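Let's practice the habit of predicting before peeking. Look at the sequence and jot down your guess about where helices and strands might fall. Then scroll down.
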Amino acid sequence: MVDSVLSSGVSGIQRGIETAREAASDIARAGTVEPENAATVPDLAESAVKLIQSEQQVAASAAVVRTADELLGTIIDTKA
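Done guessing? Here is the structure:
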């Protein structure tokens, strides 16, 4: 049980980091797109929201990992 919770937390952190990278890349690319490619300009507001959401996802997933770690410690202490 703790294993699957820990796995979910780590997966959430990885997904959050990947989403943050994509959003940061979109934000960085927004100022470099040529006018003829204006249709491909990323929406800065949307990218900023994605960046904040990914930050929150990583924080929430880290809390899950912390909680799983505490639970595992309690289980070990109880069995000892």
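How did you do? The chain has two helices and no strands.
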